[in-house]
């Protein structure tokens, strides 16, 4: 009998030890049309969990990751979010590579009261503020404001806008239209394209033919912006071309062709120009450390802005778990909201009850594609 009781106690202790792991969930678009964004996100999340566990975990407990690939499908994203909450019993979630998948996940997060840190850009994700939803990328409205600021500094005030009809493109178009007038910008042409369109020369021709046009801005991500950049060069358009932060990666240059993309400007993060930053810049050490870790783990694959969004989300989440009085979702949520002064690859985060983004416009850098690489404009 004594041996039986001892065995039962041992099994109970083993079960307790097994359940001591802190389980977090991730949903990204590792495959599909947004894989150029989701793949580095997935790599980063896995890498950071492994690194943290190698160092001993959080408060002596290992982090257990459950990661699903939604292939860019919002329906899959919502199904996986429900599975993470109901079946996997995670205490927090990161992910949502695209606006569409993020909106699907956040609905589950809010209903289940499990904190979620989004990796997508649309302002709708955190405006209005939702108690359990945060995000790491700048908003599309901030991208519009930063681009318009640079345009005005160059005397470019009459522009053409071309936007994807996907969630990100449509949201950024709406934000640019909203803030253009107050920014001193006149939008004299407004064209759109579908996610599967393979030729945008008709839209670009319409924009080019508008009297007085001085520059063109594309709001979109994925294949569309690269197609526009190639078509732009094919048409011989010499007006300045701006893209969104949705294509701030080396993959965009490769898809567009370095020669075609020469001179294109966009708002991006310090991560793409880490070596060019001032030694006193607080982000320099952070971005160079992440760059070195990622490239080593990924076999030399270059870092991207999108992996940086995942890096920052994981830093915020794990930091909050470490500070929270318990590993319960509500306690973690409160600790995330209390995050201030956290220097990431995207900027310095200062969350509050009224701000679940925590970044200001100064965190954006205007970058220009130069000789197949990136040049820091401001």
UniProtKB/TrEMBL annotation:
Entries under SUPFAM superfamilies matching the protein: Periplasmic binding protein-like I
Keyword list, A-Z: Amino-acid transport, Signal, Transport
Signal peptide (from-to): 1-20
InterPro entries xrefs: BCAA_transport, Leu-bd, Leu_Ile_Val-bd, Peripla_BP_I
CDD domains from the UniProt entry: PBP1_ABC_RPA1789-like (cd06333)
Pfam families: Peripla_BP_6
Any one biological process term the GO annotation gives: amino acid transport
Coiled coil: none
TM annotation in the entry: none
Record domain Leucine-binding protein: where: 22-370
Family to which this protein belongs: Belongs to the leucine-binding protein family.
Protein name per the record: ABC transporter substrate-binding protein
UniProt source species: Xanthobacter autotrophicus
Classification lineage: Bacteria, Pseudomonadati, Pseudomonadota, Alphaproteobacteria, Hyphomicrobiales
């Amino acid at each position: 009998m004594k041996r039986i009781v001892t065995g039962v106690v041992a099994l109970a202790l083993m079960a307790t030890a097994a359940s001591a792991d802190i389980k977090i969930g991730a949903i990204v678009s590792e495959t599909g049309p947004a894989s150029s964004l989701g793949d580095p996100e997935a790599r980063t999340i896995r890498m950071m969990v492994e690194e943290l566990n190698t160092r001993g975990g959080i408060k002596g407990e290992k982090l257990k990751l459950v990661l699903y690939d939604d292939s860019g499908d919002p329906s899959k994203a919502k199904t996986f979010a429900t599975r993470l909450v109901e079946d996997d019993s995670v205490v927090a979630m990161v992910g949502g590579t695209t606006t569409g998948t993020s909106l699907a996940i956040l609905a589950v997060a809010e209903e289940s009261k499990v904190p979620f840190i989004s990796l997508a850009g649309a302002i709708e994700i955190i405006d209005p503020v939702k108690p359990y939803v945060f995000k790491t990328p700048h908003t599309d409205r901030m991208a519009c404001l930063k681009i318009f600021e640079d345009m005005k500094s160059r005397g470019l005030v009459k522009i053409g806008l071309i936007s994807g009809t996907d969630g990100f493109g449509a949201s950024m178009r709406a934000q640019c239209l909203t803030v253009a007038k107050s920014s001193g910008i006149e939008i004299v042409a407004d064209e759109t394209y579908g996610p599967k369109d393979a030729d945008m020369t008709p839209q670009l021709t319409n924009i080019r033919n508008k009297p007085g046009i001085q520059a063109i801005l594309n709001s979109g991500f994925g294949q569309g912006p690269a197609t526009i950049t190639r078509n732009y060069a094919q048409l011989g358009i010499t007006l300045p071309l701006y893209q969104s932060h949705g294509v701030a990666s080396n993959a965009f240059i490769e898809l567009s062709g370095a020669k075609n993309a020469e001179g294109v400007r966009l708002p991006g993060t310090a991560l793409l120009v880490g070596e060019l930053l001032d030694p006193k810049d607080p982000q320099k050490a952070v971005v160079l450390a992440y760059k070195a870790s990622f490239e080593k783990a990924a076999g030399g694959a270059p870092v991207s802005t999108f992996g940086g969004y995942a890096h920052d989300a994981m830093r915020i989440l794990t930091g909050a778990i470490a500070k929270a009085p318990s590993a319960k979702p509500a306690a973690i949520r409160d600790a995330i909201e209390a995050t201030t002064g956290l220097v990431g690859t995207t900027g310095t985060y200062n969350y509050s009850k009224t701000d679940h983004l925590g970044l200001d416009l100064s965190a954006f850098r205007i970058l220009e594609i130069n000789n197949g690489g990136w040049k820091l404009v401001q």
